[in-house]
Design brief:
The protein is mostly beta strands. It contains 1 helix and 4 strands; from the N terminus they run ββββα. It holds the Pfam family YjzC.
Length: 64
């Protein structure tokens, strides 16, 4: 089983990098001006601006 790619507030960052908010169904709707944060491994994800959003690593958040 692979590493989980979406994280909820309170989860720990598995790797350093830039993470951004994604919607519940991010491939259907784009979030205008999503919140982006820089995290180090082991840091705790902060609250999102909406309870239905999650954090995802920026390089993996883009949909083709």
């Amino acid at each position: 089983m692979g590493e989980k790619s979406e994280f909820e507030p309170g989860d720990k960052a598995p790797n350093p990098g830039v993470y951004m908010e994604v919607g519940e169904a991010s491939f259907h709707t784009e979030i205008q001006d999503p919140q982006m944060i820089t995290m180090e491994r082991g840091e705790t994800f902060p609250q999102t601006t909406n309870k239905d959003r999650k954090w995802k690593k920026k390089s993996k958040a883009k949909v083709h």
